[in-house]
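Problem 12. The chain below contains 297 residues. Write out its predicted structure in token notation.
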Amino acid sequence: MLNYKQLHYFWRVAKAGSIARAAAQLRLAPQTISAQIGTLEEQLGAKLFRRVGRGLELTPAGDLTLSYADEIFQIGRELEANLRNQADSKDILFRVGVADVVPKSIAYRLLAPALAGGARVRLICREDKLDRLFAEIATHKVDLVIADRPLPHALGVKGHSHSLGRTALAFFATADLAARYQPGFPRSLHGAPMLIPGDSSTIQMGLTRWFSDHQIEPRIVGEFDDSALMKAFGKAGTGIFPAPAILAEEIEEQFGATMIGRAEGIWTRYYAISVERKLSHPAVLAISEAARAEEAG
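Solution.
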């Protein structure tokens, strides 16, 4: 098993640039640190430093080890900070990762019940690419991931996907574009300027099939990973864009866009991904129960 004290000595030497400086910072004899790093190198089976003149330089193995050490000690600092916060506060820490393909308004609707319950919850919410969030749920950096797809089995990540419901997909556009392309929908979309989500979104796959089934070939003007940016281009009249039908009122108010029609048969689905098969975190339970109640209603 890796000796973390030895790893810490290596990390301090790599940051300080020499054994002597690290020894002074740690108030230890240089020989002690040198011996501990030597033992670590034996355990890892690789040299971590090489001499360059009077100084030390990291080897390729040292560079790799340093990158892991940076992450390990960063996680350690986060652990200490979180435990101190929990000891000093009655708030329940709730760390959520939201996939960047999930519309902000949908994320809010799904997460709002966590803050509306009786428990005092402190929400820490961050947005990122889905593959990175899957890695973070595996390493317990987040309690929950909000995504537009379940956790793929092929990743080998231990986690469970809990359905939060679905919503129909619709097409929106400025008043001028809507007046032009609404009559004869959906055939009117053939050749129409279209803004679509990027290939990291499950919506793009559904749209491709839907267009093919209806023998429609729109003119793709742009692809966007960020749904808010896509709507901003739509607001400027650049093209027609798809969005969850449940947001129709909000889209009309914020972006001045009118619903042209629904893409019948396409559903956008959302999932809460956790390491628990049986949910126990009070904030996660509140989200799951609210989603079930809305779907049943």
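Discussion. The beta strands are 49-52, 55-58, 92-99, 121-128, 144-147, 160-173, 193-197, 219-224, 241-244, 258-274. Students who got a different answer should revisit the alignment rule from Section 12.3.
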